[in-house]
Amino acid sequence: MKLFLIAAAANNNVIGNNNQLIWHMPADLKHFKDLTMGHTLIMGRKTFESLGTPLKGRTTIVLSRKKDYDAKGCQVAHDLSDALKLVKGEKEVFIAGGSQIYDQSMNLHQSRRIYLTRIFASFDGDAYFPEIDPAQWELIERTDHQPDEKNKYAYSFQTYKRRLRCK
Questions:
Q1: How far apart are CA 138 and CA 85, in angstroms?
Q2: How far is the C-alpha of 140 from the C-alpha of 163, rounded, in Å?
Q3: C-alpha count within 13 angstroms, C-beta hemisphere, residue 125
Q4: Are 40 and 60 in contact (CB under 8 A)?
Q5: Are 116 and 129 in contact (CB under 8 A)?
Q6: Per-residue model confidence as pLDDT tens digits over 131-160
Q7: pLDDT tens sequence across 90-108
Q8: Going from the N-terminus, what domains does the chain have, and what CATH number goes with each?
Q9: Please, which residues have CB within 8 angstroms of residue 81's CB and are 6 or more apart in sequence?
Q10: Nearest to 115 by CA among 50, 55, 41
């Protein structure tokens, strides 16, 4: 199984504040949908609750330490190891946040790619995407975009591939 991390992060690696996205970037939302449609998403409880509902066309596994947590329409796992057991037969699975889940996933040997939308602005926030270590990750694709009437900030779709195997 291959794990792909998918996120949008500001220049200062902020991904959210108070369990909410800070920006509204329709191009990023479309990019996320195009990449993840038909696949399984693994996300933390807070990320799931910020969405409010499972995303159509995708299987969602929610990580929660709460033993009685119920996420309607989703599977629940109590740690990343349990979530990975649930998707053992799948070829590609996406890690969709938040900060703690990205931190836990970044160095797993199954983590093969990072799909990062870089928002070219800095924001105050309380959730961060981990630093991408260039010794472990190689930027293999980058498409830059200027702001437009729907997307307030300049941004870039970036794809990283793992250089070295870890853990």
A1: 28
A2: 11
A3: 22
A4: yes
A5: yes
A6: 999 999 999 999 999 999 999 999 999 999
A7: 999 999 999 999 999 998 9
A8: 17-131+138-153 (3.40.430.10)
A9: none
A10: 41
